[in-house]
Design a protein that fits this description.
The structure is a single chain. The protein has eleven helices and eight strands. The protein has 260 residues and is α/β, with parallel strands linked by helices. An eight-stranded mixed β-sheet has the order 3-4-2-5-1-6-7-8, with helices on both faces. β7, α8 and β8 form a beta-alpha-beta unit. α5 packs across α6. The longest helix has 21 residues. The chain is globular, with a radius of gyration of 18 Å.
């Protein structure tokens, strides 16, 4: 299973959702990999990696390497790095992503991530990709490489407008490059159940005809605390209501997969 977490709007919790769903997958005994394609490196930091370290192999190194006549490319199996979560590996982000993007695009390396993931898929049960908050070369590469798309969503009018643009972009990319890509659903994040406006916004996005995955993720300081401790919720606060919401979402996603 290859799943990308993407929204063109920033601040919707992409990295938090990607890391926590990946950690739950790993806790369930599935060999899981998270690839951090966002130059900010939030997912890498969350899982205990410092993107400023120069000695580690990163996703930038993987995408930029070329096997020439006299050199051998680094084997893909060397790129996943173990994390503190059992069964969960990471290919960390890098500041070099910004530096090499134009060159990768010029050399038309848009399918390189797909080819790498097809190789990694032989080793891992689940692969998650965290993406930058814009429709750029890296996001397109991820959408081409994956089977399923999850869209994080926070409940405001700007998010609804961004969702409409995102769906148009994804539809065009799917038609041109990856007809197997399925929009698995929308994950509503930082939901305030006491206010009427979020409920109204959710009702409006349900009209788009895309599954809105339940339960909705509540706002909680526990998420920021888990970021600070660099531990996913399943290890940091396994019994907290926020953690249980993520577990329930993972179970619902599994049920959707089983019934597909």
């Amino acid at each position: 299973m290859k799943r990308v977490i993407f929204n063109q709007k920033g601040g919707v919790g992409k990295s938090s959702i990607a890391c926590n769903l990946a950690a739950i997958s790993a806790q369930q005994g599935l060999k899981t990999l998270l690839i951090d394609l966002d130059v900010q490196g939030n997912a890498s930091h969350y899982l205990g990696y410092d993107v400023a370290k120069s000695e580690q192999l990163t996703i930038a190194d993987l995408l930029n390497q070329t096997a020439g006549w006299f050199t051998m490319a680094t084997p893909i199996s060397r790129f996943p790095q173990a994390t503190n979560v059992e069964n969960l590996s990471l290919i960390p982000s890098s500041f070099k992503l910004d530096q090499i993007e134009n060159e990768l695009e010029r050399r038309y390396k848009i399918y390189k991530l797909r080819d790498a993931i097809n190789e990694l898929d032989k080793e891992f049960d689940c692969i998650y990709i965290d993406t930058p908050p814009n429709f750029n070369f890296y996001t397109k590469s991820a959408l081409i490489a994956c089977e399923k798309l999850l869209i994080p969503f926070d409940c405001d009018t700007f998010s609804k407008q961004a969702l409409e643009i995102l769906l148009a972009n994804v539809s065009e990319l799917r038609e041109d490059h990856n007809q197997k890509l399925v929009i698995e659903g929308i994950i509503v994040n930082m939901f305030n159940s006491q206010a009427n406006h979020p409920k109204q916004i959710v009702s409006e996005i349900e009209l788009f005809g895309i599954p809105v995955i339940k339960p909705f993720i509540p706002s909680s300081v526990k998420m920021k605390e888990s970021h600070y401790q660099r531990q996913p919720l399943t290890t940091f606060a396994p019994n907290h209501k926020l953690t249980q919401a993520f577990v329930a979402i993972a179970e619902n996603l599994n049920e959707i997969k089983a019934n597909a």
